[in-house]
Structure formats: C-alpha cells, structure tokens
Specification:
This protein is of the alpha+beta class. 27% of the residues lie in helices and 32% in strands. The chain has a single domain, classed as Peptide deformylase (Peptide Deformylase, Alpha-Beta Complex), CATH 3.90.45.
Length: 192
C-alpha cells in the first residue's frame, strides 16, 4: 500500500526515533509499504518518520542513482543492486574528506541544495530478520545512508545548510508546510 509522505513542518520529522524489536506490530507490512511508497515517489531512501512512525527504521534502494552519468561503471553496478532495510541503526564513525552533493528529500519536495558530508560511514544495524551487521560504505551509498539516518535522529538535510541558504529557502519551506507544492505522489501536510 502506498502511504502518504509526511511533509516538512510536521513534528514527527523532528523526533528521535525509538528502537523497535521483532514484535513491533505490522513490521513486515510497514517495510513492504515503505518500499512501495518510496518506489512510487522515485526515491532512493525512506525513513519511518517520513510515513509518520517515530521509530528507528529506514530503507535504501539506490537503483535510481545507478544511471548518473558521472559514475564509474563499478559504482553504478553496485548502486543498481543495493537494497537494504536498516533497523535500530547507529552510525559508529564518519570519516574521510567532506564532499558536496545536491540532495533532495521526499518530505521537502522540489527543493534541492548542496550538502557537505564525509565520504565514508560505518554503521551497525539490524536487518528485517533482526540479524546484526556492522558495515562500512563510501560515496553515494554512504550519503544516502547518512541522509536517512539523519531522519531517525530528527534531522533534515536543510539543517546542514548555511544560515544564508536557510534564509533564502525559508519561504519555500513555509509553502511546503502549508501544502502549497506540486507533487505527483501522496503527501500529508501538517495540520494548521
């Protein structure tokens, strides 16, 4: 089932997500619905707060990035096949040089800005079977994971912008929170 994506301005996007266990009600349905919702909106990641659930769960499917022209063939192939569920994730380390990439977010539609992030991330998480993994990622995969991880920490990519950039996009953000935005996927806007 395609779920509505929560728009900028809703308090759920600012909450730190709670850890869950394998008895979380309807977890497998929620994961399936999040995958369908993300695909419908042509996203490469989706966190539970973006569908109204303040829990430590996000999914990543970077197939959409595999067609970026500037990517080496090996990285493009890796991105094409990268599909993972992250539960109760904890970033252990971010290393390497900061690099810039133009990020967007399904909860903040039609707004993309350059964001600096470190190039490598080491993360511990549980998969949908609650097996624990500790893995290190570099490049675009690391960036998507960092972006989605921020969501379960109540952080949005716009928080990482300079104060000047924040002032320049303030009106756009206000319009998004009021529902004054054109999107071709289901959204839920904050109540007035």
């Amino acid at each position: 089932m395609i779920l509505p994506i929560i728009a900028y301005g809703d308090p759920v996007l600012r909450k730190i997500g709670s850890e869950i266990d394998k008895d979380y009600p309807g977890l497998s349905s929620l994961i399936a619905d999040m995958k369908e919702t993300m695909k419908n909106a042509r996203g490469v990641g989706l966190a539970a707060p973006q569908v109204g659930k303040s829990i430590r769960l996000f999914i990543v499917d970077t197939e959409g990035f595999s067609e970026l022209e500037e990517l080496p063939a090996e990285e493009a192939e890796f991105l094409k096949n990268f599909k993972k569920v992250f539960i109760n994730a904890k970033i252990l380390e971010e290393t390497g040089d900061e690099w810039v990439f133009n990020e967007g977010c399904l909860s903040i539609p039609n707004l993309n800005e350059d964001v600096f992030r470190q190039e490598t991330v080491t993360i511990r998480y549980q998969d949908e079977n609650f097996d624990t993994h500790t893995e290190t990622y570099k490049g675009l995969i690391a960036r998507v994971i960092q972006h989605e991880y921020d969501h379960i920490e109540g952080v949005l990519f716009t928080d990482k912008l300079s104060s000047l950039k924040k002032r320049l996009i303030k009106k756009k953000l206000e319009n998004i929170s009021k529902g004054k935005v054109n999107v071709d996927y289901r959204m839920k806007f904050p109540k007035k």
